[in-house]
Design goal:
The protein is an alpha+beta fold. It has four domains: 74 residues, conserved putative lor/sdh protein from methanococcus maripaludis s2 fold (Beta Barrel); 92 residues, Elongation Factor Tu (Ef-tu), domain 3; 65 residues, Beta Barrel (OB fold (Dihydrolipoamide Acetyltransferase, E2P)); 88 residues, Orthogonal Bundle (Helix Hairpins), CATH 1.10.287.470. It is 31% helix and 38% strand. It has four helices and 23 strands. The chain has a six-stranded antiparallel barrel with strand order 3-12-15-14-13-16. Strands 1, 18, 19, 20 and 23 form a five-stranded antiparallel sheet that branches. The chain has a four-stranded antiparallel sheet with strand order 2-17-22-21, with no helix packed on it. α2 runs antiparallel to α3.
């Protein structure tokens, strides 16, 4: 029994030692994995539905955001606008004190009435002077009065004609002053020039505003039904973008919802930020968006280009940029050879090869340099 127990213990100790040796051998690098073959891909023909990606923002269309101010100075006695309130065109937003303006209108109305009365009096005087002149003319013809009397009658008629013309000019001036005073009175009532929503309020009831060189802004109104997307496209891609192309975009607030649009304008002046040249592409929103989109929301934009069929293409990861050249490593009889290529459109992870490769050739995807040295290539 003792010999049997000793034999079992010896076998167990031997197994433990062998296991420890195997673990140590693997950890010390005794077992070397064979290097995996580099990944490759073939040059194939495929259809491209290329697109241009850009980042932009939701903006108000020209004329859909209006700053409403006062053209005259005065104290704000009523303010009927709060941020977020919907307003209709010509709805009253605020009123300024206007007692002096009302008094001015009444004064000029009185002046108009006085001028009209002067005209009526002048017309009566002119009619009477005309009758006197005709009477004196007949008397002179019958030698019943002197020529001086007829001349005085003619002079009186001319004086009344001049007085009537003066009264008419005074009436015109009084009416112009009345219209001006009525216009100034209308400025005391501030109305909405467009329909929309109140975006900001810049004054309060009881404040006195002073209209100098710039009209003091009361509120800003935005028409949320007239929005657009301004997408900033890199100068590399701007040549592919044209008016009329379809587009789609998403916003961070609704990442699962895609809105559709159409390119309607491309600004000719570049926007340069941190030495990166971009161009503003204006996209008209064609999808319904009532209550969803708001100005200054960040938008991820995709502009759809025309489709191209049967073009040579390879995965983008096969293309390298070395020493100012665009290179692809081609596998030829077990060796890798660098080839300078001309690239075109991009479609997802694929890129068009416009020159330098032929259909069916094999290109390396990763580790091109190392694989080339291992196979004796360049």
């Amino acid at each position: 029994m003792k010999k049997k127990t000793t034999r079992v213990l010896a076998i167990a100790v031997l197994l433990i030692c062998v296991s420890a040796g195997v673990v140590w051998w693997h950890r010390s690098g005794g077992a070397k994995d064979k290097p995996a073959a580099p990944a490759t891909a073939r040059v194939i023909r495929r259809d491209f539905s290329s697109s241009v990606l850009a980042t932009g923002a939701v903006k108000s269309q020209v004329g859909s955001e209006v700053k409403v101010g006062a053209r005259i100075s005065g104290k704000v006695i009523r303010l009927l606008a709060n941020i977020g309130d919907p307003v209709k065109k010509d709805q009253v937003i605020a009123e300024l004190e206007k007692e002096d303006l009302v008094a001015a209108v009444e004064r000029y109305r009185a002046e108009v009435s006085v001028a009209e009365a002067k005209i009526a009096d002048g017309q009566a005087r002119l009619k009477l002077a005309g009758l006197q002149y005709q009477r004196q003319k007949k008397l002179v013809a019958g030698s019943l009065t002197s020529q001086d009397a007829m001349d005085n009658a003619a002079k009186e008629r001319e004086v009344n004609q001049a007085a009537l013309r003066l009264a008419q000019r005074q009436l015109e001036a009084a009416r112009a002053a009345l219209r001006e005073s009525q216009a100034r009175l209308s400025y005391a009532t501030i109305t909405a020039p467009i329909s929309g929503a109140i975006a900001s309020v810049s004054t309060q009831e009881g404040e006195t505003v002073a209209a100098a060189l710039n009209a003091p802004v009361f509120v800003t109104i935005i028409d949320l039904n007239r929005l657009q997307v301004d997408a900033f496209v890199d100068e590399v891609d701007i040549g592919k973008v044209h008016v009329g192309q379809n587009a789609a975009f998403t916003v961070d607030s609704f990442p699962a919802r895609e809105f559709e649009g159409k390119v309607v304008a491309i600004y000719p002046k570049a926007v340069i930020q941190e030495n990166v040249v971009n161009y503003d592409v204006v996209i008209e929103i064609t999808s319904p968006y009532d209550g969803l989109l708001k100005p200054d929301m960040t938008a991820s934009v995709t502009i759809m280009l025309e489709a191209r069929t049967g073009v040579l293409a390879i995965p983008m990861e096969a293309v390298k940029r070395e020493r100012g050249k665009t290179l692809v490593y081609v596998l030829v009889e077990g060796r890798t050879e660098p080839r300078e290529v001309k690239t075109g459109w991009k479609d997802g992870q694929w890129i068009e090869i416009a020159g330098g490769l032929e259909e069916g050739q094999t290109v390396l995807l990763t580790g091109a340099g190392q694989a080339g040295r291992n196979n004796g290539g360049v």
